[in-house]
Amino acid sequence: MLDPPHQAHDADLMVAVSLDAGPMGLRVRLAAALDPANLPQHRVQRLDWEADREAVVIRHQRIFGALVLEERVEAALPSDAASELLRQAALSQADRLLAGDEGVAQLRARVDFLRLHQPDLDLPALDPVALLPAL
């Protein structure tokens, strides 16, 4: 909360020079508005795995130091780097991805039974750890 209200009130960015902590939260006593156009900025792009969307995304950011001034996120186009991020995400979630439903659990149990009683069949294990190299 700005106290008293002044020109920085409507600014997207401001520098707070004086703050007080109180029962109602922080109160800004003195602030100056910043115009992002006057800050030295860099534009960066990076690939990222976004767990909520379960997708590889590309983040387009306008930054000032560690401060992200603007960000746009969109689905990443197919590439070797995007494929590697997707592979890493799948590996980190192998247990969940391979748990499946009751039918998958029954199949895994049958294959485990056959592997135990007929090893000459040379069946692959269907547990997540054994399947990781195939991913």
Describe the structure.
This protein is of the alpha+beta class and 135 residues long. Among the domains are: 34 residues, no CATH class; 42 residues, no CATH class. The protein is 29% helix and 36% strand. The chain has 4 helices and 5 strands, in the order E-E-E-E-E-H-H-H-H. It is elongated.
Topology (SSEs and partners):
Elements: E1 13-22, E2 25-34, E3 42-50, E4 55-64, E5 67-75, H1 80-92, H2 94-99, H3 102-117, H4 128-131
Antiparallel strand pairs: 1-2, 3-4, 4-5
Q: DSSP helix count?
A: 4
Strand content: 35-45%
Count of DSSP E strands? 5
Radius of gyration equals 26 Å
Name its key features.
135 residues, alpha+beta, two-stranded antiparallel sheet
Task: Summarize the model shown.
The protein is an alpha+beta fold and 135 residues long. It has helices at residues 80-92, 94-99, 102-117, 128-131; strands at 13-22, 25-34, 42-50, 55-64, 67-75. The strands form 2 sheets. A 3-stranded antiparallel β-sheet has the order 3-4-5.
